[in-house]
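re: that complex we talked abt at group meeting.

here r the seqs, copy pasted straight from the sheet so there may be weird spacing, ignore it
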Amino acid sequence: MRVVVTGAGGQTGSLVVKKLIEHGIETTAVVRSEVSKNKLANQLDAKTAVNIVLADVTNPETLRPVFVGMDACVIVTSSMPQLLKSSLLGVILAKIFTLGYVSKKPSFYFDEGQSPEIVDWLGQRSQIDAAKASGLKHVVLVSSMAGTKPDHFLNTQMENIVLWKRKAECYLVSSGLPYTIIHPGGLLPHFGDDKPAPGGRRMLYAAVDDSLMDDGQNHSQVPREDVAAVCVASLLEPQLSKGRSFDLGSGPDLGEPCNLSLKDLLEPLQGSNACYTKEQAEFKGSKKIRTCPCGEQ
Ligand SMILES: NC(=O)c1ccc[n+]([C@@H]2O[C@H](COP(=O)([O-])OP(=O)(O)OC[C@H]3O[C@@H](n4cnc5c(N)ncnc54)[C@H](OP(=O)(O)O)[C@@H]3O)[C@@H](O)[C@H]2O)c1
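got the structure back, here u go
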């Protein structure tokens, strides 16, 4: 199997690359700059046979050639929110003046030309088109929880990032390409946390349509390494993973190895998948959309 990984210089993407190589899978890693290329090369063993190529998902011309001759891809690109430092003042003042009763969220911005609409929607659509043009047999897409929650902080403070990702998922589902879509919860380690979050030491949980965020079980976070492991397992067990779209969370670190079984992970879903609505597919940037599972609202 020949697999191309996009966003391969990112925190999760680089773990996907490492795991594919560990499994002896012929891997092409796609990064968008020489800086990312060097960063990834430094993380890999010098003897590792991996082809690192440059492409920018906002420029489809650079993207198409990297999909040619591949059997499958793992899409791990994402627009990258930057903290608007000035918004922290409002967060602190709200906390002080309301004695902690009102919590105000900080704001974020995106570099010019790198907004969620451009990277997560149009950039993913370009990747899906390239995958289709090259006849790939499996597309694994790493997206995010909160795709059914327009009022979630990720959407209200980050230019509807997950709603744009959800729109790209709808495009993939209707593309006719065999797919697996994974919606991780909060990725561990969190931003600024120096404590590592090793994979393979937690019970993993799958659900659909953000129920892990609301069930009070605290399973809506997951180590990046476990997300990477589920991506690779999905490629290795296509009979279990194709046509599936699910949320991925985890329990606490058990301090000992916890073997991943894709079959056991997906079994509790009893075949159910994320419910995509027409409104999600037609999202144009307005928050006023119905995202209720199965369109019941
Ligand atoms: N952070 C969370 O808590 C969280 C929660 C749920 C889901 N997710 C999702 O999980 C996935 C992995 O997250 P992560 O934090 O590991 O990712 P990350 O480190 O932010 O990596 C994102 C990657 O996308 C690449 N990228 C951005 N714009 C690009 C462009 N125009 N062309 C090509 N590549 C581009 C970046 O390239 P460079 O290396 O060149 O910058 C980077 O490698 C993302 O889809 C993210 O949205 C995150």
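couple things i noticed - The CA atoms of residues 206 and 248 lie 5 Å apart. DSSP finds twelve helices and twelve strands in the chain.
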